[in-house]
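User: Run a structure prediction on this.
Assistant: Running it now.
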Amino acid sequence: MATMIIEGDRTKAASGETYEIRNPATGEVVDEVPAGGPADVDRAAQAAAKAFGTWSKLPSNQRREILHKAAQHMLSKVEEIATVLTKEQGKTLLESRLEARRFGENIGWFADLADKIHGQYVRLPDLTTYGLVVRKPIGVCGAIVPWNFPLTLAANKVAPAIAAGNTVVLKPASTTPLSTLLCIEALMEGGLPEGVVNVVIGQATGEAIVEHPLIRKIALTGSTPTGKRVMAKASETLKKVTLELGGSDPCIVLDDADLEGAARAISVGRFFNCGQQCLSTKRLYIQEGVYDSLLEKLVARAAKLKPGNGLDKDSRMGPMHTETQRAEVEAQLKDALDRGAKLIFGGGRPKGPEYEKGWFIEPTIVGEVPDDSRMWKEEVFGPALPVRKIKDLDEGLRLANDSQFGLGSSIWTANMAAAHRAVQELEAGYTWVNSIVIAHDELPFGGTKQSGFGKEHGVEAFLQYTEEKSVVYGGV
């Protein structure tokens, strides 16, 4: 049975309760894990506070060296971690390997910032005094992570937090804790001190993390409704909050676009990880002159995405993570079709005995989707792509911005004037121009509107795990 990690100890829940983790492709039990609660969060927070006393005082170059060594050890275990990730989450082994590597690479990237971020000297009007702005770690940070990218999204929070000198209480999604535990264990085997990252498991631990008085910052990736609840609860103790929430990213393709490049990018952006991504192409607007041509290319690519068990080397798309999530996407699709949308490709469940016990769904493309349908108004968290024909860039921008979300966006065009305009006018935290939807460590990532606030990735993420303190030296 897997266990939680608190102050370096592998521990069961204080209650003694457990639950099963099941493979979404087969329904088979992968492992049994503790069902933690407030008592376990309290122990983890106490351990993190204790570790903060020494970790935060280490010279920053020593933190950098420790984190690099730990990350390299973790990267030596990518295959083992990826296999477990596929079993618990459902994604293909290729996708799991990429994600496991990203975890280690993210730790290493932020390790390099540990001794590169400095405060500033300020000359004051009185020549006998001078000022400094000092950056200090916040303290104990809570990280709450969803199931779709459990490793990537954990690293987005853990890496800048510990590189800046903080300690962490980490809650993986209740259904995908196993690969996260392996990653943290590998970091500790590689030299990360006990208590710097503590892992608690179970649905009851999330609210306890947000409420705990020792935890001074919360970083959450989740749905917009969940983010609102966390923000409201965190406000009671004035915790700092970073929220990376839902998205419904628009993609605009104009008549002069590279259609092969656009088709490839849209296919990956929509169907990678079975479409279960916050940052993902979820609304497609195609200028009328290339509408049919681009759809033909997209259908050809979708036809090659063979669903299957993620452990099968022939699978090109794993199952959806849960039965509930598949039912939600099917309901959104049915709503669109009932309102007059046209099914262009897919739309059903793959047939065959190998699919009977898993939450499989076909890659799906839907055209002529009405404005009032759920597929436009809500986030579609699965492999279904609504498509609409547009007359020009003006219409594309208007429709793209007609959303409560503002996470990512993209445009495909050979006209740089059109591209520059889209960059300025698209209401999103990220815009890709003639490029695949991939977030880079070097660039800050975060949303606008109801997609949240705060940044992950980039120097900006590191800074959000620090506090500024002004200092005045007199009599010198």
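The mean pLDDT is 97.
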